[in-house]
């Protein structure tokens, strides 16, 4: 018989237990998990975060308003209530995992940059100039060493 390699797709599938980031509406920027698929455009989500200001109540969400994340709560039963979802959320440390993701770090940095005052923006400008100068100096040194060799 022939050897067949079966590869698992790297796509983020819409599945029960998939963590989504809500992009629009009253819960923008908050995490929730898919607990039931209503139809091909809508899902039932629940976001029992451990932080009080990040809790998302159970509601139907259009998939066009959500971004699928790479995180999944494994073996989450379909239409699980808020209690079991909260236990599995905390067991899998979803909030901590998302905080360590590059997407969360980048959005935090964008939020910090957006809230800078005029003097803080000036300091950022000066620091970027300094860094650019140091990089150019190191690059010139490497070029000079390569030229003399």
TrEMBL record:
Q: Which PANTHER family match?
A: 60S RIBOSOMAL PROTEIN L14, LARGE RIBOSOMAL SUBUNIT PROTEIN EL14
Q: Which residues form the KOW domain?
A: 13-40
- Write out the similarity annotation: Belongs to the eukaryotic ribosomal protein eL14 family.
Q: Which UniProt keywords apply?
A: Ribonucleoprotein, Ribosomal protein
State the name under which the record lists this protein: KOW domain-containing protein
According to the record, the segments passing through the membrane are none
InterPro entries given in the database record:
KOW (IPR005824), Rib_uL2_dom2 (IPR014722), Ribosomal_eL14 (IPR039660), Ribosomal_eL14_dom (IPR002784), Translation_prot_SH3-like_sf (IPR008991)
Q: Keyword Ribonucleoprotein, does the record have it?
A: yes
